[in-house]
Write a structure and sequence with these properties.
Layout: H1 2-14, E1 24-25, E2 28-29, H2 32-51, H3 70-88, H4 90-99, H5 103-126
Antiparallel strand pairs: 1-2
């Protein structure tokens, strides 16, 4: 969400100079009723968009210094994915404790935990 908001704000900032309704077209000054309507539209609809600034981000990302980044998003998402993977192991751990050792369950548990921990390790290497 942060990256989409930053993209929209960047596009708006790039085109902000074009967000002014004209007062003349092809060298001809527009009639005053049309200019009055253009002024109302400019003040009430276009100027608030032109003045819009992003002051706070929707999702705070770790290591963020004012603006969202792909690096911050990667760390936050990898952490969330790893935690979910570790929590998904809870039923398997309970089953192993309740019914004793089972090779298939133990391998599935080791694979899931290893993937979650490996994901965290790779993110720490790249971040």
């Amino acid at each position: 969400m942060n990256l989409v908001l930053a993209l929209a704000a960047s596009v708006k900032d790039y085109f902000v100079d074009y967000m002014v309704l004209p007062s003349n077209i092809a060298g001809q000054k527009l009639p005053s009723p049309v200019l009055t309507i253009f002024d109302i539209i400019q003040k009430n609809l276009i100027d608030p968009v032109r003045k819009f600034k992003v002051s706070a981000w929707i999702v705070p990302l770790e290591g963020q210094s004012g603006k969202p980044s792909l690096k911050g998003a990667t760390v936050a998402l990898a952490t969330a994915i790893s935690v979910c993977m570790m929590l998904s192991c809870a039923p398997s751990v309970h089953s192993l404790m309740k019914s004793g050792a089972n090779k298939e369950s133990a391998e599935a548990l080791a694979f899931t935990m290893g993937t979650a921990l490996g994901l965290q390790y790779l993110v720490k290497l790249t971040a």
